[in-house]
Design brief:
Blueprint: H1 6-11, H2 14-33, H3 38-48, H4 53-67, H5 71-74, H6 80-102, H7 107-121, H8 129-151, H9 156-174, H10 198-218, H11 226-242, H12 246-262, H13 267-286, H14 288-298, H15 308-329, E1 349-350, E2 357-359, H16 367-396, H17 400-411, H18 426-436
Antiparallel strand pairs: 1-2
Helix pairs in contact: 2-9, 3-4, 3-6, 4-6, 4-8, 6-8, 7-8, 7-16, 8-18, 10-11, 10-12, 10-17, 12-17, 13-14, 15-16, 17-18
Length: 442
């Protein structure tokens, strides 16, 4: 990622790298050794959020990160839902300040906000109105906060580096868990590191690998020194494979190859890409072991399926059919934002004091089907136009790492509908999309 203004060069310095490393070492060291401080960390982030745009952006990241930390390391954070809601509210104060100060909202941001309001309004027709409204409200607040505060961060280069160092810290602190059962706590096979789920770990590693690889091969001025990026790249690729997250791996490969073929300006990056593809191709053609390993990874060690299409249909086919049937029956407005395809499959956790739903995880098989099923053709068109506009802004940068990150973020949603999950991985995806849509720096 190229940042050539004098202020950027000041922030991308050894001093800022050392500060960011010290911050994340202290953060993970403290929270893993003394998990009881996590509520205090979230409260501190919330209190600081209204004061500066960069602190608000960092509060959103910390909120997401704490909610995804490995329960085998930190246990369950008491009152997590309300602490995250408090952070969103405090970030919202900073958003109001920024909007009053700048009085400017990009068309893509406005379109997403309109979609959020639309989703809140149609929740009255949902079979679970309270749940649908709460999810739609949190989604609207989440995108408004993430897109706005990221847009007005005064030094995006510093924030990007802070975020990249966080990725490096997650990799480093996950290393000791490779030989520990805590690293495989969720299902016993997929590696989750210090995060709560192999799928989430794989998605994060996909974004991190895309970022680091693009900076290494396609950028003349990476955010971190290459001597740090190379070991980070190797470890991130290894962790991506160990997570057994197939879509995450495919998203990284597709985005990296696309950018290398169509956007890379330097001949060195293209040569590296060609050499890598050629080497992998030769290994798969000549040797049986790599082919076997690839097959086991893609099929997740399943011997009862013949290919990826059969595996996908076995795991998502019934959900896809339910989504399609629901869309046909609710063509215009959908079944409601955040409502499952099959109501009998949902488990809703209510707060014992207020009686409001605080947790209701659902699983949808394909993002586009989920979008149309939940919001109908009207909401689907609004959202696709808004997302397309935001995605197009990434391509106008003509900055290979930025475009690669945007492609990976979108591709991660082909089989997992994370974009609508502000209480899950979706918040981080929107932070990444907000970063990739920033105006080009000169």
């Amino acid at each position: 990622m190229n940042y050539s203004s004098p202020s950027d060069r000041i922030f991308i310095s050894n001093l800022s790298i050392a500060k960011n490393i010290a911050f994340w070492v202290c953060f993970f060291g403290l929270t893993i050794s003394i998990p009881a401080v996590l509520p205090l960390v979230l409260l501190t982030a919330a209190v600081l959020a209204p004061l500066r745009a960069v602190w608000a952006a960092q509060a959103l990241v910390i909120s997401w990160l704490v909610s995804f930390m490995n329960p085998g390391l930190v246990g369950t954070v008491p009152g997590l839902f309300f602490l995250k809601l408090f952070i969103l509210t405090m970030v919202g104060i900073q958003v109001v300040i920024l909007l009053l100060r700048h009085r400017s909202v990009p068309a893509s941001h406005m379109a997403l906000f309109i979609f959020g309001i639309f989703s809140c309004l149609i929740s009255v027709n949902s079979q679970i109105p309270s749940l649908s409204f709460l999810k739609a409200f949190l989604f609207t607040l989440g995108i408004l906060c993430s897109l706005t505060v990221i847009r007005y961060v005064p030094n995006p280069a510093f924030f990007l580096q802070w975020l990249l160092v966080m990725g490096g810290a997650i990799v480093v602190f996950s290393l000791p868990l490779v030989l520990s059962g805590t690293g495989y706590l969720r299902n016993g096979t997929g590696f989750q590191g210090i995060l709560s789920h192999p799928q989430a770990f794989g998605m994060f590693m996909s974004l991190l690998t895309t970022w680091v690889a693009s900076d290494l091969f396609y950028s003349s001025r990476p955010l971190l020194p290459r001597r740090l990026l190379w070991p980070l790249f190797v470890l991130a690729v290894g962790f991506l494979l160990m997570s057994e997250a197939r879509v995450a791996l495919i998203a990284f490969v597709v985005s990296f190859v696309f950018v290398g073929v169509f956007l890379s300006k330097g001949i060195k990056g293209v040569l590296y890409l060609t050499l890598a593809i050629f080497t992998v191709g030769v290994m798969l053609f000549l040797f049986e072991a790599p082919k076997q390993l690839l097959s086991e990874f893609l099929l997740k060690r399943r011997s009862d399926v013949s290919g990826l299409s059969e595996l996908y249909w076995n795991s998502r086919g019934e959900v896809l059919l339910h989504s399609l049937d629901n869309f046909k029956e609710n063509f215009l407005l959908g079944i409601g934002f955040g409502v499952p395809s099959d109501l009998t499959s949902i488990e809703i956790t209510y707060d014992t004091t207020l009686g409001i739903p605080i947790s209701a995880p659902i699983e949808k098989g394909f993002f586009l089907f989920a979008l149309l099923e939940e919001t109908g053709i009207i909401g689907g068109m609004i959202f696709l136009v808004a997302l397309g506009s935001l995605f197009f802004r990434s391509f106008t940068r003509v900055d290979p790492p930025i475009v690669a990150l945007a492609i990976t973020a979108v591709l991660l949603n082909t089989t997992e509908n994370t974009l609508f999950s502000m209480s899950g991985f979706g918040l981080f995806i929107w932070i990444i999309l907000a970063l990739t849509s920033l105006p080009a720096r000169t």
